[in-house]
Design brief:
Layout: H1 2-21, H2 40-60, E1 69-75, E2 80-87, H3 95-112, E3 122-128
Parallel strand pairs: 2-3
Antiparallel strand pairs: 1-2
Helix pairs in contact: 2-3
Length: 129
């Protein structure tokens, strides 16, 4: 009985080891690159908009560009833009001025790129971090 258990254990172990002996099979699935979710034209538009907003805020206020955090999303081709502008908690911010600067920047870039973005489709958030 003891001999039978040892032989069964050796057979089981050898089957297990033979299955693990080869190289693992790796399947590559052709999927879209997550790093580039937007077409190049949309990505360029959002990048230009980001740069324009930072440049405009630093020119019209005394804020350092390093202290401004901007997140831009939406679908500019469909005319939808979401902008979130963040400032440090200890900085006094005129929300109305910042919203106006962002709106003006969106209008400027949309005219340059021939994209129609209506004011109803623009969402601007001012946040403190």
């Amino acid at each position: 009985m003891f001999k039978k258990a040892i032989i069964s254990g050796i057979v089981f172990s050898s089957i297990l080891l033979v299955g693990c002996n080869g190289e693992p099979e790796v399947k590559v699935i052709d999927a879209p690159n997550d790093a580039n979710l937007f077409p190049e034209s949309e990505s360029n538009l959002l990048s230009e908009l980001h740069n324009e907003i930072i440049e405009s805020i630093t020119e019209q206020t005394e804020f350092d560009s390093e202290s401004i955090a901007i997140m831009i999303g939406g679908n500019p081709v469909k005319g939808i833009i979401d902008v979130s502008v963040g400032f440090p908690k200890n900085v006094k911010v005129d929300d109305t001025l910042i919203k106006q600067i962002v709106e003006d920047s969106i209008k400027k870039i949309s005219e340059t790129e021939n994209v129609t973005i209506s004011e109803e489709n623009i969402t601007i958030k001012i946040e403190k971090y």
